[in-house]
Structures are given as structure tokens and as C-alpha cells.
Design a protein that fits this description.
Layout (H helix, E strand, L loop, with lengths): L14 H19 L3 H18 L8 E5 L7 E5 L4 H11 L5 H22 L1
Antiparallel strand pairs: 1-2
């Protein structure tokens, strides 16, 4: 009769394995912090304020971001085509200060905006 035993992950694991799990846990936790609704809301507010300060007065009221009350990770960007360049410049100005996952989120937002503009030009 052959018996298989499952290796114990935590019981007899070498110390370097436990350190690896702890480091991995810290990295994942850090990445999760960048995608929390409060963090995204804060960075949307920072980018929105900067975009409005860059835009001319007649375009400032055409740049808005709304957070869905039922789905806190969902944001609606209501922006004029003429104001998208100011929004993208504001995102570029703040990318270095953002956490990595938040930075990737805003890069995706800019990519989506660019795709929408290109789609409307063709």
C-alpha cells in the first residue's frame, strides 16, 4: 500500500520560505492599497483640480468625475473632447507620486480616452 502525505507549508517550512511569504504578503497588500476606492477618489480629486487649473476658464466646468454610490470602484469621467488634453497633462504630472497600481489605473484611463478620441476622428 502506498501512502501519500501532503507537505506541511507552515509547520516545517524553512525560514527563507516564511520570509518569502511575508515579503509577498507585504507586496500584495501594498498593491491593494493603491486600488482602494478612497485612494482612487483622492487621486481623481487631485488630477481633476490640476486639470481644471490648467484648462481655460470656459472649459473648467466641462471636466467632471462622478463616483457611483453603489459601486465605489466605478467612476464616470464626464469630459469635453477639447478638455481631454488638459486632463491627460494633469495625469502625467501626477503619475510619479501615485502608488504603482493607481498609476496603472490612470494610465489605462488615459489609454481609453485616447482610444475614444481616435475612434471619433476616424
Amino acid at each position: 500500500m502506498i501512502r501519500f502525505t501532503m507537505p506541511q507549508i507552515c509547520g516545517n517550512a524553512p525560514l527563507y520560505t516564511m520570509g518569502l511569504f511575508a515579503a509577498l504578503n507585504r507586496r500584495v497588500s501594498h498593491l491593494q492599497l493603491g486600488l482602494q476606492p478612497d485612494t482612487l477618489k483622492y487621486w481623481h480629486h487631485v488630477v481633476l483640480a490640476d486639470a481644471k487649473s490648467r484648462a481655460p476658464a470656459w472649459l473648467q466646468d466641462k471636466i467632471n468625475v462622478k463616483q457611483d454610490p453603489h459601486l465605489p470602484m466605478k467612476f464616470s469621467l464626464d469630459i469635453s473632447k477639447r478638455a481631454t488634453s488638459y486632463y491627460m497633462m494633469a495625469v502625467d504630472a501626477h503619475l510619479e507620486m501615485m502608488p504603482n497600481s493607481t498609476r496603472l489605473y490612470f494610465l489605462r484611463v488615459c489609454e481609453t480616452l485616447s482610444d475614444e478620441i481616435d475612434k471619433n476622428l476616424v
